[in-house]
Automatic annotation (TrEMBL):
InterPro entries: AA/rel_permease1, Amino_acid_permease_CS. It comes from Sistotremastrum suecicum HHB10207 ss-3. It is a multi-pass membrane protein. GO terms for cellular component: membrane. It is found in: Membrane. The chain crosses the membrane at residues 27-49, 61-84, 105-133, 153-175, 182-200, 220-241, 253-276, 314-335, 365-386, 392-414, 426-449, 461-480. Residues 504-514, 521-533 have a biased composition (Basic and acidic residues). PANTHER family: AMINO-ACID PERMEASE BAT1, GABA-SPECIFIC PERMEASE. Keywords: Membrane, Transmembrane, Transmembrane helix, Transport. Gene3D superfamilies: Amino acid/polyamine transporter I. It holds the Pfam family AA_permease_2. This is Amino acid transporter. GO terms for molecular function: transmembrane transporter activity.
Amino acid sequence: MTIATADEALLASLGYKQEFQRAFTPFEVFGVAFSIMGLLPSIASVLFFSIPNGGPSVMVWGWLVCSLFILTIGMSMGELASAAPTSGGLYWWTWKFSSPKCRNLLAWVVGYSNTIGIIAGVASIDWGCAVQIMAAASIGSKETFIPTSAQTYAVYAAVVVSHGVICSLGTRILARLQNLYIVLNILLCLAVIIALPIATPKELRNDAKFALGNFTNMNGWPSGYSFFLSLLTPAWTICGFDSAVHISEEASNAAVAVPWAITMSIALCGIIGWAINVALTFCMGTDLDSIIGNDIGQPMATIFFNSFGQNGTLALWAIVVLVQYMMGSSMVLAASRQSFAFARDGALPFSKYLYRMNGYTKTPVNTVWFAVAIALLLGLLAFAGASAINAVFSLGVVGAYIAYSIPIICRFVFENEFKAGPFTLGRFGLPCAVVSVSFMIFMCFVFCFPSTPTTNAQEMNYSSVVIGGVIGGSLIWYYFPKYGGVHWFEGPVANLGGEGDVVKGGEKGEKGEEGSVDVVEVEKESLDEKASR
Ligand SMILES: *[C@@H]1O[C@H](CO)[C@@H](O)[C@H](O)[C@H]1NC(C)=O
């Protein structure tokens, strides 16, 4: 059997007919997972979690430890992806591997946490982008300009809305730019790993004792606890690798390519990210208070500023902002596709209006603006206090971890027909799942705590409020008398063997995306084009 017919046969055994072209080579699947992590700009966005919660030692060792745990998540997810490589992914596995008694409910919860996680991803990436733009303004004005929350929110809103416009208009230009953006991202990583140590003046270079061993705890939590809080930096950066799962039906030899794409992208981000952190700790000087608290307002921009000077930083920073902006637009696309697929199964409120293709632009315009509107609302947290906006970052991770852990648990807890694919850990599958799920549950609790111990309305962690509200709201909606999902929601619908035709909305790009799909349309299109050339 050729690879193509084997792919098709495997998909048919899952209940789906082959509708997409299998245009993605294994390396390109890896590229999708790797690029959504946007390594350097992502680290820049969340450095303010690791520097005050431990400083150098957590940046170096916390990153390493956390990457290893995230790799166990990737391996557990990889086993599922190898056994059932369908683009519905998380949502589909949950439904398939749980008991018929509760599978609709569990798939519902996974779909909701995945959706809110991705939209929080949009909000946090774009907020990071707004802060980066403001940092550039501050550096450009020789630190005479200090942005207020309202100004940062205005920039944030402009970024989010512009992404909405781009994603409504179609994605061809973005697709073209995608390759450029991967190259720029890698150049940025090299710039930090190689150029930063060269450019840093002697007095800011740190010895190994400080760079690898200093523990500075600024926020007042017990040291052990602040260590866990600092892990939000790697956890937020190395996230979203389920994007590889969502292109399963477009990947050649998916049962092998997808799990390897997940694990390799995590491993590579872990290693390169670690090198970046080491370069930073050796070159950031010892005055951590000023890196966090100065007027530039962006820790990595400050480190660059101290080492490269004003012009060098502005040049480099322009690329950071650009790559971050591109990452945000990919994320809006992902969020709109996820909402579209979830609305297709009728699960979102107002699904009837959301599940609609715009005939003129051939994009799901309604779900694009649905995602934009929720992201704008989440950004309003900036007005509830400086640290309230942190909640948006933790929300992205918590939403993802809830959605990642439920299918892994279901596979082992319920009686089901799980049959390992070519990527399998054998008898280490269960221990690996226990480690990864325990890690994710633990992290969900950690990230729902406030960032400092003095809890008041400004300092409390709103991610517990938002995630509680979303899950609670979705449960109420599920059990709602008469109209609730419990009365009609059937999980993902198979399209092979006449169980119902899912192709209501119509055109090629949308067919066959079952369940919670966040196809990274941007990469897909660019690669499709490449393949057809
Ligand atoms: C870490 O570095 C800071 C600044 O140099 C210093 O005040 C502190 O004592 C150091 N802490 C440890 C544990 O080495």
